[in-house]
Design a protein that fits this description.
With 161 residues, this protein is of the alpha/beta class. The protein is built from 6 helices and 7 strands. The strands form 2 sheets. It has a 4-stranded parallel β-sheet with strand order 3-2-6-7.
């Protein structure tokens, strides 16, 4: 079933690090905001890295991202997908990252997981000619990574933010 990405990119003129996921989960699409599944560790991770309180509301989450000089979006603009299953993704149309790159001083791009990496390398990197660093997914499906291991791996973004 064809699904369009319902969430606008989150960034401002001081965003220096771009974090890209693959495509929003069903919960994120329902909330019309990033990482909406309560078991996803993204928000807990970002709060931990930037020594901030856990952001409970969407507005708190937006402020945490912007105050940390981050930008947030996804690689895929639309695709055929069943529920939230990355393995079911077909007929990908990538997002146009120029929406962010033309307006923010992005120094480094990080990818949240292997699915984001797969579609970034296939569709986006050939167009924008920019390398990206893949980080372990914050998804609950990535249970092999403890929260502590995730924090250690994701700490690399602090040097660029």
């Amino acid at each position: 079933m064809l699904v369009h990405h319902p969430i606008d990119p989150l960034f401002d003129c001081s965003s220096s690090v771009l974090i890209l996921g693959s495509f929003p989960s069903v919960k994120s699409r329902e909330q019309v905001f990033f990482y909406g599944h309560p078991q996803n560790r993204f928000w807990k991770l970002i709060a931990c890295l930037f020594e901030a309180p856990f952001p409970e509301t969407i507005e708190d989450r937006k402020q945490l991202i912007l105050n940390s000089h981050l930008a947030l979006w996804d690689v895929i603009a639309s695709c055929d997908i069943e529920g939230s299953s990355d393995s079911s993704i077909r007929n990908v149309v990538p997002n146009d990252l120029d929406v962010i790159l033309a307006h923010a001083p992005i120094g480094r791009i990080y990818l949240n997981g292997r699915t984001a990496e797969k579609y970034y390398r296939k569709y986006t990197q050939p167009q924008i000619q920019r390398e990206a660093v893949v980080l372990p997914s914050t998804s609950p499906a990535n249970a092999a990574w403890s929260f502590e291991r995730l924090c250690e791996a994701w700490r690399v973004i602090l040097a660029d933010a």
